Every structure is written in C-alpha cells, then in structure tokens.
Amino acid sequence: MDPVIEATRLTKRYGDTVAVDNLTFTVEPGKVTGFLGPNGAGKSTTLRMILGLNTPTGGTVTVDGVPFAHRPRGLRHVGALLDAQDVHGGRSARAHLSALARGNRIPLPRVDEVLREVGLTKAAARRIGGFSLGMKQRLGIAGALLGDPPVLLFDEPLNGLDPEGVLWVRGLFRRLASEGRTVFVSSHMMAEMEHTADRLIVIGKGRLIADESLADFSARNTSVGGVSVHTPALAALEAVLAGEGAAVRREGDREGRVTGLPAARIGELAHRHGIVLHELTTHTSSLESAFMSLTADSVEYLAGEPR
Fold it and tell me: What is the rounded CA–CA span in Å between residue 164 and residue 294?
C-alpha cells in the first residue's frame, strides 16, 4: 500500500470554536505537498490529529489506511517535526535521539547516521539548551528521519535556518519525495513553497480552500498576470485585441497590460495588422500573491491601516 495520508470530513471543535471544519484531502507519495493557510487556519491542529495527538471531534484521518495512534513504534511509520523548541535542553543531541531510538526499537547506529545527515556530528555531545534555533530545527529533522519512515510531516521547518540550511532542506525534501515517500510541509514562507512544493493544500478558518498543483494554484490569481506590451501604436493594438475579447490596461502612452490572450496570439495579431511591438512579456502570478488573494477572507488577525 502506498504511504498516503487521507483526511475525510475531519473536524475539531474547542467549545464554540471550530478549529478544523469538515476537512477532506489526500496527501500522496512521490511529491512534496505544501500545507498553507493564514495564522489560526487550523494547520497545526490538523497535523496533530494526523499524529493522534489530538482526537477529532468528527471525521477521520489515516496513514496507510490506519489511524496513526494504532501503530506501535510510530517513528518507523511517520516522522514528524512539530516544534523544534520542544526538547529537553539538558540532554545532548545524541542522548535525545538515542532515547527516541530505544523507544521505537530503532538500531542505535542509526542515531549517528541521521546526525551526520543533518550536519550535527560535531555538536552531537553538546547540550541542546545551547543550540541555536537553526540547530534545533536540524535536530528535529534528524528525529523525523530516525525511523526511515515512508511518511514525513514538518511544521514550519525553515524557521531559524540560514540560507545554506534552507537550500539543504529544500534538497532534502526533494530527495525524500523522489524516493517515493509522502512529504507534507506546513509553512508560511511562500517563496520557499514556490521552490519546493509540487502540490498545495490550502485552508482558511479550518476549511479547505484549494487542493491542486502549485502551477494551478498560482495561475488562479489573474490580477497580477497577463502580458505586458510596449508599442508606438497602442490605440491600434487595443482595438485589434478588443475584437478578440481581450482587455488592455494602459500603463503609459506606449505601454499596457493585456489579459485574455496569450503572448503568442497577441504577437500574431500585431503582425497581421502591421503593428510594431517593442516588448511582449508574459507575467505569471506568484504563489504569494495568489495565496493572499484566495485567503483574504480567511485571515483571523488583520493589521489595520497605519495612521
């Protein structure tokens, strides 16, 4: 069976507050799936329900068809980093991982393997309390990798990492996915998800907003897309494109942004009508702009206008 995470009508209430609301999605192997949403959207609660740390009020969530809480020696099935700060500061990195290994019947040599993989070999004997946040993130990732699991969950794994560390994590997630593992990453860093994720699950106020490929999600926000044109005959081009159902927003006497037609078609029409083009540039929507557009109604904490 493929290592799939499957949530079906997953719901979590805290009194009158609905943290997760009838959420249904599937996280498949072989790709990096980004999990996005504004603060308070229910991402962390969802991850905790996947791991059996919180009990759903309604619905189900399974890993390989089984609730995670029913699996003995869980680190062999799912590796997770939820909070890099949630470690015993008085232990060394090696002692921390060794305790996890013994509790999950993982051979102790695996400890030094993962320490080496995350770049903490030289710090293995140091107390975790003296670690920087970036080092704690690396240690948390080592713990997730310890059982060599087919499913991996990461909650904000890039916090505190320097640029080299961010590049390393990006490559690590890619490699894990290429090995056929299921990689589920919750993050607020849109630019990184744009470079890392293959697919996105986006939620707001506990509800599903989108479940689709990165490219499809980014393409949703057409307001920042379109094609820039620069021509000495902008009025003539406007008339031609209007006949094809396109719209031109002027950005100067000779510049405009065209929506409704691809660049190739605009170029063909301009050539046919003898219109000289000095520039023809396609703009693609960024993940961040698409995210802000689609989650605008789901933001719980919205800053006011400066006074």
Answer: 31
